[in-house]
Design brief:
The protein is of the alpha/beta class. The chain has one domain: Luciferase-like domain (TIM Barrel), CATH 3.20.20. The chain is built from 11 helices and 13 strands. The longest helix has 20 residues. It is globular, with a radius of gyration of 18 Å.
Length: 304
């Protein structure tokens, strides 16, 4: 997301491996981002995924804010049902109070690994109903303070949450199912992933019919360079533990110009911002690649 509604926001997705770089390397990375055309930075979230790996998305946001990053910060996506919405809201408000730019909390169901739910004493079969309870509560808690009473999976009864002078926190719903479109109407917008531009456009129309002001985004892995496909395949195997072949059509690869060309159809279908997770282990090249894609998409957008 950008402050200028006519500009397409292009964000750099940081994998857990990049967030865990040594502090000096992270400070160098932040300096590089701050000097680039990248509009925002995105982090992932998993509590215990594929054998126990993970990264707390809110802790990662707080860390990046503390490093002095001068960009909007996004989660993509926070698995909301694993947490009580009051705690999530308090953490987001606290981060917003110390960060000089907008916080965008995209939330989703997760469920790719049922153990992630059982690790916190929940069943993954409840994730839909838990999400339905969590989203309106979170949106309410992030708004102006008022007394709140909520029943369901996450009972709340109290005065609400006082906040400081930080920027507003947006709640975006991530997902492909029709239920995510309905939840997006309660929140600030919708974030898609692993879909074609045509499917994105169809879903975007449904979301806009429910909420004309909804902000629409698309998130994807990308593979930069001559061996971009191979690098992206390896990253998908590492991150998801799955055969990458079914996902290849959703993963732009090639040069910065070729990737920008593959992403523009999502913008033409209604995407107002893009979250790009570059595959690979070279942080400097990742930032350079996404920054160049951002420059090309900004240039294209300005000519429309």
């Amino acid at each position: 997301m950008t402050s200028d509604s006519t500009t397409i926001g292009v964000g750099l997705g940081l994998s857990p491996d990049l967030v865990r770089l040594e502090r000096a390397a992270m400070l160098s990375l932040v300096e590089q981002i701050n000097a680039s055309e990248i509009d925002h930075v995105v982090v992932t979230d998993h509590v215990s995924f594929r054998g126990g790996s993970g990264q707390d998305g809110l802790a990662a946001l707080a860390y990046l804010a503390g490093l002095g990053i001068e960009r909007d910060l996004h989660t993509g996506v926070l698995i909301l049902p694993l947490r009580h919405p009051t705690i999530v809201a308090r953490q987001l408000l606290d981060i917003a109070d110390v960060h000089s730019h907008r916080i965008v909390c995209a939330v989703g169901l997760g469920g790719d690994d049922p153990d992630e739910y059982s690790m916190v004493g929940m069943s993954s079969t409840e994730r839909g109903s838990r999400m339905s309870d969590s989203v309106p509560a979170l949106v309410s808690l992030l708004g102006p303070q008022r007394a709140i009473t909520v029943d369901g999976h996450y009972p709340i009864d109290g005065p609400g949450l006082a906040r400081g002078g930080g920027a507003p926190v947006d709640v975006i719903i991530g997902g492909r199912a029709p239920q995510s479109h309905e939840r997006a109407a309660i929140a600030n917008g919708w974030l898609a992933t692993f879909c074609t531009p045509a499917r994105f456009g169809e879903a975007a129309e449904r979301v806009r019919a429910l909420s004309p002001t909804a902000t629409l985004g698309h998130q994807s892995w990308i593979g930069l360079g001559d061996n971009g496909q191979g690098i992206a395949d390896a990253q998908l195997r590492k991150f998801y533990g799955l055969d990458p072949e079914p996902f290849r059509r959703y993963v732009p690869t090639g040069s910065s110009q070729e990737i920008a060309n593959q992403l523009i159809p999502y913008v033409e279908a209604g995407a107002q911002y893009l979250n790009l997770f570059p595959a690979g282990d070279d942080p400097k090249s990742a930032v350079e690649g996404v920054a160049e894609i951002a420059r090309r998409i900004h240039e294209w957008s300005s000519q429309q």
